[in-house]
Amino acid sequence: YPLSIFFIVINEFCERFSYYGMRAVLVLYFKYFLQWDDNLSTAIYHTFVALCYLTPILGALIADSWLGKFKTIVYLSIVYTIGQAIISVSSINDLTDHNHDGSPDNIKLHIALSMIGLILIALGTGGIKPCVSAFGGDQFEDDQEKQRTRFFSIFYLSINAGSLLSTIITPILRG
What we know:
By secondary structure, this protein is an all-alpha fold. The protein is built from five helices and no strands. The longest helix has 32 residues, at 107-138. It is found in: Membrane. Belongs to the major facilitator superfamily. Proton-dependent oligopeptide transporter (POT/PTR) (TC 2.A.17) family.
């Protein structure tokens, strides 16, 4: 196996763990930190998820007509990481709690940071989605059909393992 395959599989496990872990508590964040009602929380959540499934089209266009798979993965992974960092910072209560009463004084800043973070996450996670599996398959020579087939099995196992574990572990850690 090419050495790069192990990095691809591990990176995809971590990316899915991060994405689904954040999604597992996102509506709770909307409701209890941003103080949104059920309808707004649900609408924003589903808009975010829809955007995550729409942006692979953009990622494929960028990869096929401009940057190539590798650079698209690298650049959009950076965008994704910045988005996760921004949404994490937006959840820091003390960021705007100047009077130390336990609630943020400028909720609009938290909302703005949250939306920017979610947009960047959607661009990143969706943008790399069409590229990673194809890039992984490109790592094999023509005579490595058996290894390539096994790679895709391991690759999809890692994606689903990351998703499953994060949806179990993240709510436990939250508690």
